[in-house]
Design goal:
Shape: elongated
Distance between the termini: 31 Å
Structural class: mainly alpha
Helix content: over 70%
Keywords: Membrane, Transmembrane, Transmembrane helix
């Protein structure tokens, strides 16, 4: 069996523009999910979980950065 060279083993990296757009989309989807959860909890429990508001605002940034760093 033929051994793979270093060039063949490396994974193809998308361009920076594509990575930035995908990271922004991941962040927006995560933010939308968090806001939807807050609205759901507000409608069902008739109370806003105030401890979760900072998390809903910061987790999308963490998710986008983690997605972006997957290729770095």
């Amino acid at each position: 069996m033929k051994a793979l060279s270093t060039k063949e083993r490396t994974r193809r990296r998308p361009s920076d523009k594509v990575l930035n757009v995908l990271a922004a989309l991941v962040g927006l989807v995560t933010l939308a999910a968090g806001i939807a959860w807050l609205i759901y909890k507000w409608r069902v429990d008739l109370e806003v979980p105030y401890f979760a508001i900072p998390l809903v605002l910061t987790v999308p940034v963490i998710a986008a950065a983690a997605f972006r760093s997957f290729w770095d």
